[in-house]
Amino acid sequence: MRISSRYFLRNVGFGLIILIAAACLPPDTEEEFPDDDEWYVEKDDERCDQLLSSAAEYYKNKDWKSTIRVYRMLTNDGCDRGNEEQVYQFWAIAHERQAQFDSSEVVLLQGLKRLPDNLNLYNRLAYAYKRLNKPEDEAYVYQDILDIEPENSETLKDLARVYGDMERYEEQVEVLKQILELEPTNKSAEGDLVLAFENLGLDPLDIYRTRFAHNPNNVSYGIDLADQLMRSDEFVEAIDILEDLSHQWSKNGAVSKKLIFKKLAQAYIENGQLSEASEAYIRLFEEDSGDFRTAIEIVSLNIDIPDFETALLWIEKAIEIAPENGEPLGYKGNVYYQASLDCREEVPNTDDKIVASLAQKYFKMSLDKGYRKFRRDVKYLDENADDLLFGLEDWFLLNDQSVSLKPSGDCYSWVKEALPKDPSWRQ
């Protein structure tokens, strides 16, 4: 009998359990069971049917005391034979409803003598031990369940929780590894495993390295390892892994490839390799050339490099993809604005003012379309227009009769767009 192998060793036999429980329980919840040699007395089927019906009615009406009383009578009369699961399960539940978990334990242990492989009874017993704050016993029950169903993932999760609560981290690690074998994408188990490793003073990276080493073609495992490496500031190793994954074209789907490129760009950024990050986003854009926000990521990186010519090229692509969206227009304004800040000396010259004015033009176009990220820049430029923007006074000082002007300095050689003369100006 399965349960006796553990419970008899700990409790010196079930009979001792009954004696101890009977001594501790109040009179109205005390359970008594016939001896084994008295169990198979001939039962009165008619009376058994009446008792079963009464128990069911009392249970339905939540009359727990009467339910318990009738189930006790059922058992004494041998009426549980053939109805063991129903009798012991609902009898135990009736005790639970009155917070009599000690009594529930006694009932369930007796039931498991009759049905040693019944998972419902085991689960109720585990619940009783949980409520009694007996984690050791709770763990034993989960182990018994796993003897019957070794791949019961829910029971494994419960057992891992109990081991964690008891700070038995080595055992918890083993159980969590079993869970991840059954559910490789279980993030909760992964997180608990990392925590258990940390509690043991071990490097959680070992988990991810080992798992990926055993499954080198599993993209998810590789990405998980790269994520952990980045959290540990191991960017070079993360980059190597992601670059390898990015070249496994035949094994990775489109979604996986896009995720790899995003992670790769992130790793390059964290490692200060902005040009390489830009290239990773370009590879991502090649996978989905309709995503204007990928183009904007390339723009932002090239502003930081700085490579304003490349940034302008990519923002034009974004505008072409989403001409009615204010976001690309705002970022085009930002290309010009950041260039004006990067190129100008202490006092802005004519070229600086022209490019800043182009920036303000696109900032306002973006704002008109509802994109508000650069609204503070609009306000700042308006408030400092005399110093930063090309205006009427600058126009007359140039003594230039053109209807538009382009910057002429080397720093702005990439700017091909001309700033038109304001129609309100008079010569």
Can you characterise this structure?
This protein has 427 residues and is mainly alpha-helical. It has a domain at 1-134: Alpha Horseshoe (Serine Threonine Protein Phosphatase 5, Tetratricopeptide repeat), CATH 1.25.40. 69% of the residues lie in helices and 1% in strands. The protein has helices spanning 2-11, 14-24, 45-60, 64-76, 84-97, 101-114, 119-131, 135-148, 153-165, 169-182, 187-199, 205-214, 219-231, 235-246, 254-270, 274-287, 292-304, 308-321, 326-343, 350-368, 375-383, 385-388, 392-398, and strands spanning 404-405, 419-420. Helix 13 (219-231) runs parallel beside helix 15 and helix 16 runs antiparallel to helix 17 (292-304). The longest helix is centred in the C-terminal third of the chain and has 19 residues, at 350-368. It is elongated and about 120 Å long. Residues 7-29 and 36-41 have low confidence and may be disordered.
The tally of strands reads: 2
Number of helices in the DSSP assignment: 23
> Can you name the CATH architecture of the domain at 1-134?
Alpha Horseshoe
Q: How large is the radius of gyration?
A: 37 Å
Strand % is under 5%
Spell out the helices and strands N to C. HHHHHHHHHHHHHHHHHHHHHHHEE
Which residues form runs of ≥5 with pLDDT under 50? 7-29, 36-41
Class computed from helices, strands and strand pairing: mainly alpha
Query: CA-to-CA gap between the ends?
Result: 106 Å
Overall average pLDDT: 87
As a percent range, the share of helical residues equals 55-70%
Strand order of the largest sheet: 1-2
Largest sheet: 2 strands, antiparallel
Regarding CATH, which class of the domain at 1-134? Mainly Alpha
CATH topology of the domain at 1-134: Serine Threonine Protein Phosphatase 5, Tetratricopeptide repeat
CATH homologous superfamily assignment of the domain at 1-134? Tetratricopeptide repeat domain
From the spread of the alpha carbons, the general shape counts as elongated
